[in-house]
Amino acid sequence: MTAHIYKNKKPIIFFLAPAFAFIIIFLYYPFIQNIINSFQEISGLGSSAKGWADPWYSNYVKLVKDENMWIALKNTLIMLLVTVFGQVGIALLLSILTDRISHGAKFFRVVYFFPIVISATALGLLFNLIFLYDKGMINQLREIFGATELVDFKSKAYALITMMIPVMWQYVGFYFIILVTGLNNISTELYEAAAIDGATPFQQVKFISLPLLQNVISTCVILAVTGSLKVFDLPWTMFPKGLPNGETWLTGTYMYYQVFNANNVDYSSAIAVVIVILGVILSKLVNSIFKEKEF
Question: What is d(CA 213, CA 220) in angstroms, rounded to the nearest whole number?
Answer without folding.
Answer: 10
